[in-house]
Amino acid sequence: MNYNTELKRLILPEYGRNIHNMIDHCVSIADRGERQRCANTIINTMGNLFPHLRDISDFKHLLWEHLIIMSDFKLDIDYPYELIKKEDLYSKPPRIRYDNSRFRYRHYGKIIEQMISKANELEQGEEKNYLVSLVANQMKRSYLLWNKESVEDNKIFLDLKELSSGQIQLDESMLKLIEIREVFARNNINNNNTGNNKKNHSRKNK
């Protein structure tokens, strides 16, 4: 009796040993036409293993790529797609550049600074006033996530002035920010909704 641990390692274990054996047999077929027909049959069988993925874009393309990978790139047939090359399979992707740009207040985040820069570019008018109002209120929400005690509106206005290099200057007579109790009330509603969704999902899975 042969144990799986003693057999050849499966390249893509999710397809099982039978599919791998079929591919090995397909590679060994001398006649190219017969080999092509065998490969098409294997692709159909592979697709039947994952019927829930049939609606995914490029599903067939993915199957052909898996086929050539499981054959260790030895299956010589006419492929319907441009497939990955063996030398590219294990190559490392280019390193993603990490954004090391600094921002002054981490509790506000980079997006808030970008929105303030955008507001600075706008001409005085309704659009700019609306954006500044959105930014200032979001700054207050973000501040309260960092410091759950309280925050004066004047603190938000001073930070906004600093982050805008003095171009946006507000006070309480010009803009009324969201109330602290409203921020906390919304957070509680969101937390309760999240908790209820988790409970409902747990009940459905029972």
Structure description:
The protein is 57% helix and 0% strand. By secondary structure, the protein is mostly helical. It folds into 2 domains: 86 residues; 84 residues, no CATH class. It is elongated and about 85 Å long.
Rg over CA atoms: 30 Å
Mean pLDDT: 85
Low-confidence stretches: none
Strand content: under 5%
Total domain count:
2
Distance between the termini: 40 Å
Brief account:
By secondary structure, this protein is mainly α. Helices cover 57% and strands 0% of the residues.
How do the helices and strands line up, and which of them pair or pack?
Blueprint: H1 16-28, H2 32-49, H3 59-70, H4 86-89, H5 109-121, H6 126-146, H7 153-163, H8 180-204
Helix pairs in contact: 1-2, 2-3, 5-6, 6-7
Task: Give structural attributes.
206 residues, mainly alpha
